[in-house]
Amino acid sequence: MNRMKVKNAVTQLGISLVVISLCGFSCKKADSTLTSALPSLTSTEQAQVLNADNQDAVADRTDQDVDKALDVLQNNNYNSNNTALKADASFTITVDHPDSTTFPKVITLTFNNYIDTAASEIYTKNGTITVTVTVDSANPKYVIRTQMFNNFSFSTDSSSFTINGTRIVTRKSITTKFNGLKSFRSSIVDDIKATLQYKTTIGTVVESFTRVVAKTRTATVHYKNVSTASIPTWKNVKFVNDINSDSVTYSGEVSGVNEKGNLYTKTVLAASPLVVTFYQTAPVISSGTMEYTVTDSTTKQTSKYTLLFVQSTTNPHKTSVTVTNDSNAKTFTYVSRLKRKFIKY
Protein backbone atom coordinates (compact mmCIF):
# COMPACT_ATOMS: atom_id res chain seq x y z
CA MET A 1 0.00 0.00 0.00
CA ASN A 2 1.50 3.33 -0.99
CA ARG A 3 1.44 6.42 1.14
CA MET A 4 -1.53 7.99 -0.61
CA LYS A 5 -3.63 4.86 -0.16
CA VAL A 6 -2.71 4.64 3.50
CA LYS A 7 -3.54 8.29 3.99
CA ASN A 8 -6.90 7.95 2.27
CA ALA A 9 -7.79 4.80 4.18
CA VAL A 10 -7.05 6.12 7.64
CA THR A 11 -8.42 9.58 6.97
CA GLN A 12 -11.63 7.99 5.81
CA LEU A 13 -12.01 6.53 9.30
CA GLY A 14 -12.24 10.16 10.30
CA ILE A 15 -14.20 10.91 13.35
CA SER A 16 -15.93 7.55 13.61
CA LEU A 17 -13.52 6.05 16.14
CA VAL A 18 -13.88 9.01 18.45
CA VAL A 19 -17.07 10.99 18.26
CA ILE A 20 -19.39 8.00 18.02
CA SER A 21 -19.15 7.70 21.80
CA LEU A 22 -19.46 11.39 22.57
CA CYS A 23 -22.30 13.65 23.43
CA GLY A 24 -22.77 17.29 22.59
CA PHE A 25 -22.80 20.13 25.06
CA SER A 26 -23.74 18.15 28.15
CA CYS A 27 -22.13 14.78 27.94
CA LYS A 28 -23.92 12.96 30.73
CA LYS A 29 -27.02 13.25 32.83
CA ALA A 30 -26.96 14.42 36.40
CA ASP A 31 -26.36 12.12 39.33
CA SER A 32 -28.82 12.12 42.22
CA THR A 33 -25.89 12.42 44.62
CA LEU A 34 -25.12 16.12 44.73
CA THR A 35 -22.74 18.42 46.56
CA SER A 36 -23.05 22.18 46.83
CA ALA A 37 -21.26 25.08 48.40
CA LEU A 38 -23.28 27.57 50.45
CA PRO A 39 -25.27 29.60 49.66
CA SER A 40 -26.92 27.17 47.29
CA LEU A 41 -29.42 27.51 44.46
CA THR A 42 -33.03 26.86 45.40
CA SER A 43 -34.47 23.39 44.83
CA THR A 44 -36.45 24.73 41.87
CA GLU A 45 -33.34 26.21 40.29
CA GLN A 46 -31.43 22.98 40.86
CA ALA A 47 -34.18 20.95 39.18
CA GLN A 48 -34.24 23.40 36.29
CA VAL A 49 -30.51 23.04 35.68
CA LEU A 50 -30.52 19.26 36.07
CA ASN A 51 -33.44 18.86 33.67
CA ALA A 52 -31.57 20.96 31.11
CA ASP A 53 -28.64 18.59 31.51
CA ASN A 54 -30.96 15.60 31.04
CA GLN A 55 -32.42 17.07 27.86
CA ASP A 56 -28.95 17.34 26.34
CA ALA A 57 -28.08 13.79 27.31
CA VAL A 58 -31.25 12.32 25.79
CA ALA A 59 -30.83 14.29 22.57
CA ASP A 60 -27.15 13.58 22.17
CA ARG A 61 -27.49 9.87 22.87
CA THR A 62 -29.75 9.57 19.82
CA ASP A 63 -27.37 11.66 17.70
CA GLN A 64 -24.42 9.44 18.62
CA ASP A 65 -26.13 6.34 17.27
CA VAL A 66 -26.93 7.95 13.93
CA ASP A 67 -23.41 9.36 13.50
CA LYS A 68 -21.88 5.97 14.32
CA ALA A 69 -23.97 4.10 11.75
CA LEU A 70 -23.29 6.68 9.03
CA ASP A 71 -19.54 6.77 9.68
CA VAL A 72 -19.31 2.98 9.50
CA LEU A 73 -21.29 2.99 6.26
CA GLN A 74 -19.05 5.66 4.75
CA ASN A 75 -15.94 3.68 5.70
CA ASN A 76 -17.40 0.67 3.86
CA ASN A 77 -18.29 2.59 0.68
CA TYR A 78 -21.95 2.60 1.78
CA ASN A 79 -22.25 -1.16 1.41
CA SER A 80 -24.64 -2.09 4.22
CA ASN A 81 -23.87 -5.79 3.77
CA ASN A 82 -20.20 -5.27 4.58
CA THR A 83 -20.18 -3.28 7.79
CA ALA A 84 -19.34 -3.71 11.45
CA LEU A 85 -22.86 -2.61 12.35
CA LYS A 86 -25.32 -4.91 14.04
CA ALA A 87 -27.90 -5.68 11.36
CA ASP A 88 -30.72 -8.08 12.19
CA ALA A 89 -34.48 -8.09 12.50
CA SER A 90 -34.37 -5.28 15.07
CA PHE A 91 -32.06 -2.96 13.10
CA THR A 92 -31.93 -2.78 9.32
CA ILE A 93 -30.07 -0.44 6.96
CA THR A 94 -30.86 0.26 3.33
CA VAL A 95 -28.91 2.45 0.89
CA ASP A 96 -30.31 3.41 -2.49
CA HIS A 97 -26.83 3.80 -4.03
CA PRO A 98 -24.39 1.48 -2.20
CA ASP A 99 -21.19 2.88 -3.66
CA SER A 100 -18.65 5.59 -2.93
CA THR A 101 -19.30 7.80 -5.96
CA THR A 102 -23.04 8.23 -6.53
CA PHE A 103 -24.59 11.20 -4.73
CA PRO A 104 -27.02 12.20 -3.44
CA LYS A 105 -27.91 8.92 -1.78
CA VAL A 106 -30.68 8.06 0.67
CA ILE A 107 -29.97 5.90 3.71
CA THR A 108 -32.76 4.45 5.82
CA LEU A 109 -32.07 3.32 9.38
CA THR A 110 -34.98 1.27 10.74
CA PHE A 111 -35.21 0.26 14.40
CA ASN A 112 -37.73 -2.33 15.62
CA ASN A 113 -37.51 -2.66 19.41
CA TYR A 114 -33.77 -2.36 19.06
CA ILE A 115 -32.15 -2.65 22.50
CA ASP A 116 -28.86 -0.94 23.23
CA THR A 117 -27.00 -1.13 26.54
CA ALA A 118 -24.51 1.52 27.63
CA ALA A 119 -23.14 2.29 31.10
CA SER A 120 -25.63 -0.12 32.73
CA GLU A 121 -28.54 1.65 31.02
CA ILE A 122 -30.94 0.03 28.58
CA TYR A 123 -32.22 2.03 25.61
CA THR A 124 -34.96 0.84 23.27
CA LYS A 125 -35.42 2.44 19.86
CA ASN A 126 -38.30 2.22 17.41
CA GLY A 127 -38.92 3.96 14.11
CA THR A 128 -37.13 5.14 11.01
CA ILE A 129 -34.47 7.80 10.46
CA THR A 130 -34.00 8.86 6.85
CA VAL A 131 -30.66 10.38 5.86
CA THR A 132 -29.87 12.15 2.60
CA VAL A 133 -26.12 12.27 1.89
CA THR A 134 -24.64 14.84 -0.47
CA VAL A 135 -21.08 16.02 -1.09
CA ASP A 136 -19.37 19.31 -1.79
CA SER A 137 -18.75 19.34 -5.54
CA ALA A 138 -15.36 20.99 -5.00
CA ASN A 139 -14.22 18.42 -2.42
CA PRO A 140 -15.91 14.98 -2.18
CA LYS A 141 -14.55 14.50 1.34
CA TYR A 142 -16.83 17.25 2.61
CA VAL A 143 -19.97 15.20 3.16
CA ILE A 144 -23.33 16.72 4.16
CA ARG A 145 -25.81 14.50 6.02
CA THR A 146 -29.42 15.62 6.39
CA GLN A 147 -31.23 13.47 8.95
CA MET A 148 -35.03 13.34 9.20
CA PHE A 149 -36.73 12.10 12.40
CA ASN A 150 -40.43 11.23 12.02
CA ASN A 151 -42.01 10.18 15.33
CA PHE A 152 -38.86 8.30 16.21
CA SER A 153 -39.18 6.61 19.62
CA PHE A 154 -36.36 6.50 22.16
CA SER A 155 -37.06 4.89 25.54
CA THR A 156 -35.19 4.33 28.80
CA ASP A 157 -36.31 2.38 31.85
CA SER A 158 -38.02 5.45 33.33
CA SER A 159 -39.23 7.56 30.41
CA SER A 160 -39.80 7.58 26.66
CA PHE A 161 -39.36 10.24 23.99
CA THR A 162 -40.78 10.82 20.53
CA ILE A 163 -38.49 12.83 18.26
CA ASN A 164 -39.40 14.86 15.18
CA GLY A 165 -37.35 17.24 13.08
CA THR A 166 -34.19 17.67 11.05
CA ARG A 167 -30.47 17.51 11.91
CA ILE A 168 -27.75 18.46 9.43
CA VAL A 169 -24.06 17.60 9.89
CA THR A 170 -21.71 19.34 7.45
CA ARG A 171 -18.05 18.36 7.28
CA LYS A 172 -16.08 21.58 6.84
CA SER A 173 -12.47 20.41 6.80
CA ILE A 174 -10.13 17.44 7.15
CA THR A 175 -6.38 17.88 7.57
CA THR A 176 -3.83 15.14 8.22
CA LYS A 177 -0.22 15.40 9.39
CA PHE A 178 2.15 12.41 9.29
CA ASN A 179 5.15 11.86 11.53
CA GLY A 180 6.90 9.60 9.06
CA LEU A 181 5.80 6.00 9.58
CA LYS A 182 5.51 6.39 13.35
CA SER A 183 2.19 8.15 13.70
CA PHE A 184 -0.18 10.73 12.30
CA ARG A 185 -3.08 12.89 13.41
CA SER A 186 -6.19 14.17 11.70
CA SER A 187 -8.15 17.30 12.51
CA ILE A 188 -11.82 17.18 11.51
CA VAL A 189 -14.33 20.02 11.76
CA ASP A 190 -18.11 19.53 11.52
CA ASP A 191 -20.88 22.12 11.64
CA ILE A 192 -24.07 20.80 13.25
CA LYS A 193 -27.48 22.43 12.84
CA ALA A 194 -30.80 21.01 13.98
CA THR A 195 -34.42 21.86 14.70
CA LEU A 196 -35.94 19.09 16.79
CA GLN A 197 -39.00 18.50 18.95
CA TYR A 198 -39.10 16.00 21.84
CA LYS A 199 -42.28 14.74 23.49
CA THR A 200 -41.58 12.86 26.69
CA THR A 201 -43.79 10.53 28.72
CA ILE A 202 -42.91 10.04 32.38
CA GLY A 203 -45.45 7.75 33.99
CA THR A 204 -48.77 9.29 32.98
CA VAL A 205 -47.39 12.79 32.48
CA VAL A 206 -46.65 14.01 28.94
CA GLU A 207 -44.28 16.94 28.47
CA SER A 208 -42.26 18.31 25.57
CA PHE A 209 -39.22 20.42 24.79
CA THR A 210 -37.57 21.76 21.66
CA ARG A 211 -33.96 22.23 20.57
CA VAL A 212 -32.55 24.53 17.90
CA VAL A 213 -28.87 23.65 17.50
CA ALA A 214 -26.03 25.59 15.87
CA LYS A 215 -22.67 24.28 17.03
CA THR A 216 -19.21 23.33 15.81
CA ARG A 217 -17.48 20.04 16.60
CA THR A 218 -13.69 19.78 16.16
CA ALA A 219 -11.90 16.46 16.66
CA THR A 220 -8.18 15.78 16.81
CA VAL A 221 -7.70 12.08 16.18
CA HIS A 222 -4.35 10.31 16.71
CA TYR A 223 -3.07 7.09 15.16
CA LYS A 224 0.12 5.17 15.82
CA ASN A 225 1.92 2.47 13.87
CA VAL A 226 1.83 -0.88 15.70
CA SER A 227 3.44 -2.91 12.95
CA THR A 228 6.05 -5.39 14.21
CA ALA A 229 7.96 -5.41 10.93
CA SER A 230 11.70 -5.10 11.45
CA ILE A 231 11.88 -2.61 8.60
CA PRO A 232 8.67 -0.54 8.50
CA THR A 233 7.44 0.43 5.05
CA TRP A 234 4.21 1.84 3.66
CA LYS A 235 3.33 -1.72 2.59
CA ASN A 236 3.36 -3.17 6.10
CA VAL A 237 2.35 -0.15 8.15
CA LYS A 238 -0.55 -0.71 10.55
CA PHE A 239 -2.10 2.39 12.10
CA VAL A 240 -4.46 2.11 15.09
CA ASN A 241 -6.31 4.84 16.94
CA ASP A 242 -4.53 6.14 20.07
CA ILE A 243 -7.78 7.26 21.69
CA ASN A 244 -6.27 8.43 24.98
CA SER A 245 -4.42 11.13 23.02
CA ASP A 246 -7.56 12.32 21.22
CA SER A 247 -9.71 15.33 21.99
CA VAL A 248 -12.99 16.81 20.78
CA THR A 249 -14.20 20.36 21.35
CA TYR A 250 -17.67 21.87 21.04
CA SER A 251 -18.78 25.48 20.76
CA GLY A 252 -21.98 27.15 19.66
CA GLU A 253 -25.56 27.46 20.86
CA VAL A 254 -28.62 25.39 21.71
CA SER A 255 -31.94 27.16 22.30
CA GLY A 256 -35.62 26.32 22.50
CA VAL A 257 -38.49 25.77 24.90
CA ASN A 258 -38.08 23.50 27.92
CA GLU A 259 -40.62 21.10 29.47
CA LYS A 260 -42.06 23.97 31.58
CA GLY A 261 -42.74 26.09 28.51
CA ASN A 262 -39.86 28.47 29.28
CA LEU A 263 -37.51 29.85 26.65
CA TYR A 264 -33.86 28.87 27.17
CA THR A 265 -30.47 29.38 25.54
CA LYS A 266 -27.21 27.51 26.18
CA THR A 267 -24.06 29.07 24.76
CA VAL A 268 -20.53 27.70 24.66
CA LEU A 269 -18.10 30.34 23.43
CA ALA A 270 -15.22 29.41 21.13
CA ALA A 271 -12.87 31.07 23.65
CA SER A 272 -13.89 28.51 26.30
CA PRO A 273 -15.19 25.42 24.46
CA LEU A 274 -16.25 22.19 26.07
CA VAL A 275 -13.24 19.91 25.72
CA VAL A 276 -13.83 16.17 25.69
CA THR A 277 -10.78 14.02 26.40
CA PHE A 278 -10.43 10.33 27.22
CA TYR A 279 -9.54 8.64 30.48
CA GLN A 280 -8.80 4.94 29.95
CA THR A 281 -10.67 5.25 26.63
CA ALA A 282 -13.82 6.65 28.32
CA PRO A 283 -14.93 10.14 27.19
CA VAL A 284 -15.12 12.88 29.82
CA ILE A 285 -15.66 16.65 29.62
CA SER A 286 -12.37 17.87 31.03
CA SER A 287 -12.91 21.64 30.76
CA GLY A 288 -15.16 24.35 29.40
CA THR A 289 -17.77 26.97 30.27
CA MET A 290 -21.43 27.23 29.33
CA GLU A 291 -23.75 30.22 29.68
CA TYR A 292 -27.35 29.22 30.38
CA THR A 293 -30.33 31.60 30.37
CA VAL A 294 -34.00 30.74 30.91
CA THR A 295 -37.03 33.02 30.84
CA ASP A 296 -40.10 32.14 32.90
CA SER A 297 -43.15 32.06 30.61
CA THR A 298 -45.43 33.46 33.35
CA THR A 299 -43.35 36.08 35.16
CA LYS A 300 -41.15 36.89 32.13
CA GLN A 301 -38.20 36.94 34.53
CA THR A 302 -34.90 35.79 33.03
CA SER A 303 -32.38 33.80 35.08
CA LYS A 304 -28.76 33.55 34.00
CA TYR A 305 -26.31 30.88 35.05
CA THR A 306 -22.67 30.08 34.33
CA LEU A 307 -21.71 26.39 34.25
CA LEU A 308 -18.07 25.43 34.73
CA PHE A 309 -17.04 21.90 33.68
CA VAL A 310 -13.91 20.22 35.06
CA GLN A 311 -12.73 16.64 35.23
CA SER A 312 -13.50 15.16 38.63
CA THR A 313 -10.44 14.85 40.85
CA THR A 314 -11.93 11.94 42.79
CA ASN A 315 -13.17 10.02 39.74
CA PRO A 316 -11.49 10.93 36.43
CA HIS A 317 -14.25 9.12 34.51
CA LYS A 318 -16.73 11.82 35.53
CA THR A 319 -17.21 15.55 35.18
CA SER A 320 -17.79 17.98 38.04
CA VAL A 321 -20.18 20.79 37.10
CA THR A 322 -20.39 24.00 39.14
CA VAL A 323 -23.42 26.21 38.44
CA THR A 324 -23.41 29.87 39.49
CA ASN A 325 -26.44 32.14 39.46
CA ASP A 326 -25.06 35.31 37.89
CA SER A 327 -27.47 37.58 39.78
CA ASN A 328 -26.65 36.52 43.36
CA ALA A 329 -23.51 34.33 43.09
CA LYS A 330 -25.29 31.34 44.64
CA THR A 331 -23.77 28.05 43.51
CA PHE A 332 -24.64 24.42 43.02
CA THR A 333 -22.24 21.57 42.22
CA TYR A 334 -23.00 18.10 40.94
CA VAL A 335 -21.11 15.20 39.43
CA SER A 336 -22.19 14.34 35.92
CA ARG A 337 -23.05 10.73 35.16
CA LEU A 338 -25.73 8.78 33.35
CA LYS A 339 -29.18 8.94 34.89
CA ARG A 340 -32.60 9.15 33.32
CA LYS A 341 -35.29 10.81 35.40
CA PHE A 342 -36.48 14.36 34.96
CA ILE A 343 -37.07 16.18 38.25
CA LYS A 344 -40.54 17.69 38.70
CA TYR A 345 -40.61 21.38 39.63
Describe this structure in words.
By secondary structure, the chain is mainly β. The protein has one domain (3-336). Helices cover 14% and strands 53% of the residues. The chain has 3 helices and 16 strands. The chain has a 16-stranded antiparallel β-sheet that branches. The N and C termini lie far apart (61 Å).
Determine the mean pLDDT: 81
Report the portion of residues in β strands: over 45%
Helix content: 10-25%
Strand element count: 16
Radius of gyration: 21 Å
Overall outline: globular
Number of helices, counting only DSSP H or I runs of 4 residues or more: 3
User: In sequence order, what are the helices and strands, one letter per element?
Assistant: HHEHEEEEEEEEEEEEEEE
Head-to-tail CA distance between termini: 61 Å
Name the quaternary structure: single chain
Number of domains: 1
Structural class: mainly beta
Question: Unreliable stretches, pLDDT < 50, 5 or more residues?
Answer: 1-38
Biggest sheet architecture:
16 strands, antiparallel
List keywords for this structure.
mainly beta; 3 helices; 16-stranded antiparallel sheet; 345 residues; disordered N terminus
